[in-house]
Structure formats: C-alpha cells, structure tokens
Amino acid sequence: MRPLHHHIIECSLTSLMPTQCTIGYIEVASKREEWRNLSKKARTTLLGQHWFPSILGPKNKTYIIDHHHLGLALHEEGIDRVKLTILKDLSWLGEDTFWRVMEFHQWVHPFNELGQRVPFNKIPTHIAKLMDDPYRSLAGLARKSGAFAKDITPYSEFLWADYFRSQIDKKKLLKSWEGAVELANEVAKKQEASYLPGWAGKSISI
User: Fold this and answer.
1) Cα dist. 97→55, 62, 200 in Å?
2) What is the pTM of this model?
3) What is the pLDDT of residue 40?
C-alpha cells in the first residue's frame, strides 16, 4: 500500500499529473540555469528538500498542486526521480466530484495560455505538455522587480498575469521584456489593481 498523508515518497516525475495548464517559460529557463550552476551535492540536496505537494486522485493518479515550473525545469534537465508528499487521498472519488473538490480547495487552475477557462479534461496530463503563457512570465519578473509583494494566495501570479494581459499589449511584451516589466510596475500600482494579492499601490482615502 502507498504511504499517504504527508509521508514522503519517491516517484517518477513523468508520472505526476499537472493541475494547471500553463507556466511562464522564463521562470523555467531561470530554474534550469540555477540547476546547471549547482554542484552535484547541492543538486542532491535540492531534490531531497523540494517535495512536490500532491493529491491522490481517481485511478490512483498523483496530481501535483505546486512546483510545476521546477518540475518542468528538472524534466528538461533529464531528471526523473523526485520526492513528493501526498496531502490528501481522494482516489475513491469519481472524476466529477474529484474536480469539484479540487476547485473548492483551490488546488487546480483550469485556464489556458490566453487566460480562458477550459474543461478539466483539457488540463495537460504530462509536465512536458504545459503551455507557455508570456504574461505568467511577466508576472514573475514584475514581482521580483517589486511591482507587487509575494503572497500565499493560490495562483496569485496567475491573477496578476491576467491583469497584465488586460493592460499590456502582447506585441509590446514580446518586443522588450525590460520595457514590459517597467510598464508592469506602473500599471501594478493602479487603484484598479487593488483587488489583487500583494498589491503595493496607495489606497484612496474616502
């Protein structure tokens, strides 16, 4: 029997099921570069300390609910064995109920690279099939530059990605990442962005 509920187990990275459709590939590339600069000992330490939080779903499939960027970076670097922790066993649920529970707990983000919601069965079933959303990359770069604060709200950077999608033309984004980050810092301070997690603008006194 598989260990459950916070026990650490090792498995194949390629067997893990994503719970989101997209990543920001710039962040993946950054993690790949960081990995290449690590010593053999440091790589072993990283793999030992970065547990993929997971949910056991129908047919005993394991769904990761975080570290998708790291997962893809490791996959592209030829790493397959990773450690994970099973947070919840939902393997006895039917598919429909399983996804309702996943969404209730904010353990799934069924939105594509255009920010459009998709059916749960359209979520990639392999880490390598995650799609690149440039605005997710922008959100990560903008946060690191101080446009907004890091926040524990699930999928907070995806929320910022959707906001930037409505504010910054994609042609401008792809033309100059540096210019796009500067613009992101400007629009991130707007009052209309105050609903977003980590907003660092100034509130208007009433």
Assistant:
1) 14, 16, 38
2) 0.91
3) 94
